[in-house]
């Protein structure tokens, strides 16, 4: 019987990609903390994940140009502007402490997803090799 990686790994490989994309967006916010009129952006992980689950269960691509990826940070539709708690005088909406906290939380979630996938691969490897 053939092993399907999509079935074995589920949505976790896409979750890691979304976490990596979010890390890039958050790092960009932190890097632009002093840029006048820069608007802080973020990804809604739960909404993207729910969209991916819906896509897996219901959606089919009707055109070869449709993307199979969850998101790409260059697509503005997936990025949302963060509502500032205290906008600065120069129009910048980055709150460095909030961005750093979100970045740290995202890093922990990425690591957890990575460890989960690592465990899945170890299980698959053991299934292929058999017991030693």
How would you sum up this structure, described in words?
This protein has 132 residues and is mainly α. It has one domain (12-129). The protein is 55% helix and 5% strand. A two-stranded antiparallel sheet has the order 1-2.
In round numbers, the mean pLDDT is 77
List the total number of helices: 4
Strand content: under 5%
Radius of gyration: 19 Å
Query: What is the topology, as strand order, of the major beta sheet?
Result: 1-2
Q: How many distinct folded domains?
A: 1
The SS-based structural class is: mainly alpha
Largest sheet: 2 strands, antiparallel
How many E-type strands?
2
Q: Helical content, roughly?
A: 40-55%
Low-confidence stretches: 53-60, 67-76
Q: Could you give the distance between the termini?
A: 21 Å
Coarse shape: elongated
Order of helices and strands: HHEHEH
Q: What's this model, at a glance?
A:
The protein is mainly alpha-helical and 132 residues long. The protein is 55% helix and 5% strand.
Question: What's the layout of helices and strands?
Answer:
Elements: H1 5-9, H2 12-31, E1 41-43, H3 45-57, E2 79-81, H4 96-129
Antiparallel strand pairs: 1-2
Helix pairs in contact: 2-3, 2-4
């Amino acid at each position: 019987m053939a092993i399907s990686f999509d079935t074995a790994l589920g949505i976790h490989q896409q979750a890691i990609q979304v976490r990596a994309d979010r890390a890039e967006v958050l790092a960009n916010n932190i890097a632009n903390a002093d840029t006048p009129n820069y608007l802080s952006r973020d990804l809604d992980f739960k909404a993207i994940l729910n969209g991916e689950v819906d896509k897996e269960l219901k959606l089919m691509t009707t055109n070869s140009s449709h993307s199979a990826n969850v998101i790409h940070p260059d697509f503005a539709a997936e990025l949302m502007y963060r509502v500032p708690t205290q906008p600065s005088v120069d129009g910048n909406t980055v709150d460095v402490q909030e961005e750093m906290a979100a970045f740290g939380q995202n890093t922990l979630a990425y690591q957890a997803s990575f460890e989960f996938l690592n465990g899945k691969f170890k299980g698959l490897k053991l299934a292929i090799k058999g017991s030693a």
